[in-house]
Specification:
homodimer; alpha/beta; four-stranded parallel beta sheet; 15 helices; about 40% helix
Chain lengths: ~450, ~450
């Protein structure tokens, strides 16, 4: 057993890209370069997949200038993976670490990454092998446990807020109904960030629909009708996780299908069936509990939302309302050029802190963030080490959520908006937002 | 007849928003403030619609600070319209101008705006009324006649390029096929801007599909298969105007429907029929020449493209390939915070120049841009006055296009890409793009 802590370091990235996951990578590398007990600095291609095939980039061969460029670039520079290693994979990884004299392992990813990290850690402990194992959290969804917020969220939130600024301005200029579907299936944090687009009273989004609450079609379309009737326009933010009262997302919900029937919108059930058959033809769609194909079409939810609204408004108002639905898509997690400066700095810090804690002698952990009350209203945040199992949720009793939904205090009573408290909470994380200037509405006296 | 040129000014905005249409508005206002023959400066709400209801904002009441904020804000600050005035509307507008002592009219918009401007101009001439009438071009599509390029295009192009940088980086990190649908039904300029996302050889987009050429489904899916087989991944840019050999867009094409049948993809014809029935239910879909409903679903084209590709790859490769299609959506024209500095400066210039030319005694025109050869390879551009009719295409013989498609020299022989010449042409218009840093692929020697 090498008890000196001297040895090689492996760093990897996992899960969906973010705008700042490379900041954490560069934080790990830059801090590692400062400690002589760390010898080789190996970047694993595609996370644990690269470790298993012993495919590493030499991070010592990168210039400082290039590292800074990479840090400012979205998506995972080492490549990522969606691979959740099983116990035997973790064993194989550990054997490779032992063979290659790796004593430091840093894994930047979501809660699955914390879990994998924890398993490898346990094997090393059993084998009495000196391995320092750290998890650096990242996710645009912000649904990781323990941490106040997660690197990746602030920049994605900034993208969403600026997209909704644009939506509001576009919708003002050419009034109608605009629906935008935002990422985040389990938690509404990212959808909620749309609220930061508001600058003046009356600004959109005029409703924010979150996966933490449930909605019927009737509630959904009547809310939009009320907004449109009052303002002559409506900009609506909808989480891709919009669900029925049993927690099933709309596209996979039997309750929604029954409601469509009841509302005389069976054309939409037919359309969902037709869409399911395409999935079938392309390799077999998974079937839900009710035998309906699960739809993965990127625009399918937006089209469903637009369709129920269009049909409802046509029936109620007797006219075709200008209606458009967009799905914000991958740009939320990897658009180049929209980064929150707070988020970038904290992501870098999480990588640096992980190495600092590791070389100080601590064996494992996840780097989380907490706000300091000493800020007197000003945003101040520090990183701290949390237990891997607390972040991965591995030891949680069955039925306890392994992700963090939005707190009730952040969701308004009416369930169609966030609270001012959420806006205060999110504001510093998104950093400086784009300018949104509106004319003074001084009429010409004729 | 007031021959002194003294009088009120009306400025309006029309058509789809852009990131810099407010720059042109502020250019008009700031220049107007410098000339004492211009008395009132009236901003018409929602273009000609606001003029017809005599609904004006006092642009003299805006502070300089606010004007600069508005200039930096996307979408039309005065509100816009999709209204194409008929001869009698133009007559009504002229009568309002006469009544309100308006002698200057500036209309910022596309070729329909140039047309409306021209009609009002002719009425004023017939009536021997001193009216200075100018059109300031704007469009993200860049398909206006006469001008080398159009304010609005550079910023939209920058958004598209940065979205495709993100796509490429995302697609590198988690390989698969990613298809993105870009705006521009008649011309491929905006889709072509995706090429500017490339920094290194092998960077996506790996194919660019333009409305200036026609494609069969077979050509489309086999191209993607070839790219995917070679690189293990594919990022594809597709214009929303992708069409068959008769020039009909895919979703409205009988040729495409026949090909779907022939390819044994009838599930997609069924899906299109189902989609058409929704449109029907929501106020009646327009029917095309073949009796098929025209689909306006925002994600419908992306879903069609994804579906044919998914089914083809599953049949050919015997596996489900990671496949996702996004529609870039309204963010292309109104996302807050992504602006080309070249575009912003030129849009401002077009507003200023219009007023300068008007007060110099010229009665009408459209402000266009041309490149200066004297730049010795460096980008240099100047504005110039063009005839309204040349820009609106009003006098063109039947069958001659009233918009400008991409030149042949900008489209590669294989029809799946743009030429290096296009990249050179577009580069200065998009301004400074986001950083895209990639690691040096130096393997660790084990």
């Amino acid at each position: 057993m090498a008890s000196t802590g001297k040895g090689n370091l492996v760093v990897g990235q996992s899960g969906g890209p973010t705008a700042v996951i490379n900041q954490s990578l560069v934080g790990v590398v830059q801090e590692a370069l400062r400690h002589e007990q760390i010898t080789g600095i190996y970047g694993a291609h595609n996370g644990v997949e690269g470790i298993l095939r012993e495919d590493f980039v030499d991070m010592r061969a990168q210039s400082n200038y290039l590292l800074e460029e990479v840090a400012a670039t979205p998506s995972a520079a080492l490549g990522s993976c969606r691979f959740k290693p099983k116990e035997e994979d973790c064993k194989a990884i550990f054997e490779i670490f032992r063979k290659l004299d790796v004593h430091y392992f840093f894994y930047i990813g979501g809660n699955d990454s914390a879990l994998s990290t924890g398993i490898i850690n346990n094997i090393a402990k059993q084998q009495n092998y000196d391995l320092r194992v750290f998890h650096c959290p990242k996710t645009i969804d912000n649904d990781l446990l323990v941490t106040d917020h997660c690197p990746g969220y602030g920049s994605a939130g900034k993208y969403v807020a600026q997209a909704f600024m644009g939506n509001d301005l576009d919708n003002r200029a050419l009034p109608g109904v605009k629906i935008d579907v935002v990422m985040g299936r389990n938690a509404g944090w990212l959808t909620a960030a749309a609220a930061l687009a508001r600058v003046q009273p009356g600004d959109g989004p005029h409703a924010i629909i979150l996966p933490e609450r449930s909605y019927t079609i009737k509630e959904f379309v009547e809310k939009i009708e009320a907004i449109y009737t009052k303002n002559g326009r409506a900009s609506i933010a909808v989480s891709e996780g919009i669900c029925d009262k049993e927690g099933n997302v709309w596209l996979q919900s039997d309750i929604i299908r029954a409601e469509l029937k009841e509302l005389g919108m069976d054309v939409l059930n037919d359309w969902m069936d037709a869409t399911g058959k395409i999935e079938d033809e392309a390799g077999g769609a998974k079937l839900d509990a009710f035998g309906h194909a699960q739809l993965s079409g990127s625009g399918a939810l937006a089209d469903l939302l637009a369709s129920v609204t269009k049909i409802h408004l046509y029936r109620k108002l007797g006219k075709k309302v200008r209606l458009r639905a967009d799905t914000l898509g991958y740009a939320q997690r990897s658009f180049a050029g929209v980064v929150s400066e707070t988020d970038a700095a904290e992501a870098r810090e999480s990588g640096r802190a992980a190495v600092q804690v590791a070389v100080s002698g601590v064996k494992d952990g996840s780097i989380c963030f907490r706000r300091l009350k000493a800020g007197f209203g000003k945003y101040l945040c520090e990183s701290f080490r949390a237990e891997l199992d607390d972040v991965s949720g591995v030891d949680f009793p069955k039925g306890v959520k392994q992700y963090r939904p939005m707190e009730d205090k952040f969701i308004s009573e009416c369930k169609f908006d966030v609270t001012p408290e959420f806006v205060e909470w999110a504001k510093p994380l998104l950093g400086t937002l784009a300018v949104k200037g509106l004319l003074d509405q001084v009429p010409v006296k004729i």
